[in-house]
């Protein structure tokens, strides 16, 4: 083969992908290989002094090139494509489908760090640390930056309340009456300025905004007050510092820990989706109710609502994956998987022998009855604003 000529193996990769209507070029394959994103074809030695040869095109090369072609487009940073590829490789494989190979884990770690360095949370942490040297003016600047960068969000309406409203024909609550998520800036301020400078009341508001354990600001204020008066275990504020730098956490994580965090994130996304769909009249079963109860026992639905995006962008995926490196999320995932193993028939309605098919039909019927009933109540109108409110809330 002449120097610089395309290898027969790469030409075969191009042809195989073209048969799937996936267009790649030999130069693209070589560019991805130079970037460390595409493996080389496996070669077999011909013996001393006789070189080596590619016996067959490696399926991993073909599927890796296909993944890159799906997620890369002109003008897009390759690191975002790597994150989408990593996310896709962690999804369950459909029967008869070819598994998506894993991207190089080193490239994944670099992409995660690159995205997280540019995240709003990391920017605010760095701002808080620099604000500590600027006194009161620095604190004012930090809160002004948070107000500018953080989007207000009070959480989705509790699905049980949404379901009850739909079944009663009442207005659907648009959002939960929880504290504004921007209150979490007080935690960021504590990282840079110190907990004493921020104050117990502001920190209680911040913890309530995070949704942890479903506690209110009053609950947190009472708990922090007990610790402050020495009537209970002291609060280890050093943990805030320890977990503040998510970039370092990702860089320190082992390859196995990054893959495990993805497993936790994908699993929690599914459990969160089932919990939310309960509000959209998903037929209830003992197994589904048990899963919701586990989440409620951990007080984690409000936290999941802040963390989980059902169809995340690469940036959302990176931030959620970094959170799922933390032990509480891993523990919740394990608890839910244990519960699912105890009662796996989540789509089996007691007394209905048709199984998942009957479950689906009952859900469709419930939605049709809801739609028809609301249209009749509105004089045949095709659109009910309450339905739009639910979509925003869920």
Describe this structure as you would to a colleague.
This protein has helices at 8-18, 26-34, 59-71, 78-89, 105-117, 120-131, 135-149, 159-168, 185-193, 195-198, 200-210, 217-228, 238-244, 246-252, 255-277, 286-298, 301-307, 314-323, 327-342, 356-377, 385-393; strands spanning 44-45, 52-53. With 394 residues, it is an all-alpha fold. The protein folds into 3 domains: 8-103, no CATH class; 120-157 and 175-244, no CATH class; 246-393, no CATH class. It has a two-stranded antiparallel ribbon with strand order 1-2. The longest helix is centred in the last third of the chain and has 23 residues, at 255-277. The chain is globular.
Please mark out the parts with pLDDT under 50 across 5 or more consecutive residues, or reply none: 49-53, 381-394
H and E order = HHEEHHHHHHHHHHHHHHHHHHH
Main pleated sheet: 2 strands, antiparallel
Report strand %. Answer: under 5%
Give the count of helical stretches.
Answer: 21
Distance between the termini: 59 Å
Mean pLDDT: 83
- Side by side, the strands of the main sheet go 1-2
Shape: globular
Overall SS class: mainly alpha
Helicity level:
55-70%
Beta-strand segment tally: 2
Count of folded domains: 3
**What Rg do the Cα atoms give?**
26 Å
Topology:
Layout: H1 8-18, H2 26-34, E1 44-45, E2 52-53, H3 59-71, H4 78-89, H5 105-117, H6 120-131, H7 135-149, H8 159-168, H9 185-193, H10 195-198, H11 200-210, H12 217-228, H13 238-244, H14 246-252, H15 255-277, H16 286-298, H17 301-307, H18 314-323, H19 327-342, H20 356-377, H21 385-393
Antiparallel strand pairs: 1-2
């Amino acid at each position: 083969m002449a120097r610089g000529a395309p290898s027969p193996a790469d030409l075969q990769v191009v042809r195989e992908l073209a048969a799937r209507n996936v267009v790649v070029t030999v130069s693209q394959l070589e560019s991805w290989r130079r970037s460390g994103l595409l493996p080389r074809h496996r070669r077999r030695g011909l013996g001393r002094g006789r070189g080596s040869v590619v016996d067959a095109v490696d399926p991993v090369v073909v599927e890796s090139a296909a993944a890159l072609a799906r997620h890369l487009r002109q003008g897009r940073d390759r690191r975002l494509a790597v994150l989408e590829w990593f996310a896709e490789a962690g999804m369950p494989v459909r029967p008869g489908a070819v598994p998506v190979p894993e991207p190089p884990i080193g490239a994944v770690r670099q992409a995660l760090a690159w995205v997280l360095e540019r995240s709003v949370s990391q920017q605010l942490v760095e701002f808080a640390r620099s604000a500590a040297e600027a006194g009161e003016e620095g604190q004012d600047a930090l809160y002004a930056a948070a107000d500018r960068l953080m989007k207000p969000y009070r959480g989705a309406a509790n699905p049980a309340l949404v379901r009850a409203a739909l079944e009663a024909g009442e207005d659907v609550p648009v959002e939960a009456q929880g504290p504004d998520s921007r209150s979490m800036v007080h935690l960021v301020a504590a990282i840079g300025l110190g907990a004493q400078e921020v104050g117990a009341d502001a920190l209680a508001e911040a913890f309530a905004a995070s949704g942890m354990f479903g506690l209110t600001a009053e609950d947190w204020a009472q708990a922090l007050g007990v610790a402050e008066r020495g009537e209970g275990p002291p609060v280890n504020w050093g943990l805030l510092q320890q977990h503040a730098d998510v970039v370092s956490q990702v860089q320190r994580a082992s390859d196995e820990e990054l893959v495990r965090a993805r497993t936790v994130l994908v699993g929690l996304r599914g459990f969160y989706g089932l919990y939310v769909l309960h509000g959209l009249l998903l037929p209830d079963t003992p197994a589904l109710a048990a899963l919701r109860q586990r989440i409620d026992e951990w007080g984690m639905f409000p936290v999941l609502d802040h963390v989980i995006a059902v169809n995340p962008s690469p940036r959302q995926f990176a931030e959620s994956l970094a959170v799922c490196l933390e032990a509480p999320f891993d523990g919740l995932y394990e608890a839910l998987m244990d519960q699912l193993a105890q009662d796996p028939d989540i789509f089996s309605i007691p007394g209905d022998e048709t199984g998942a098919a009957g479950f689906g039909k009952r859900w469709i019927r419930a939605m049709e009855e809801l739609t028809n009933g609301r249209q009749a109540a509105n004089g045949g109108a095709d659109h009910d604003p309450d339905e739009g409110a639910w979509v925003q809330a869920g």
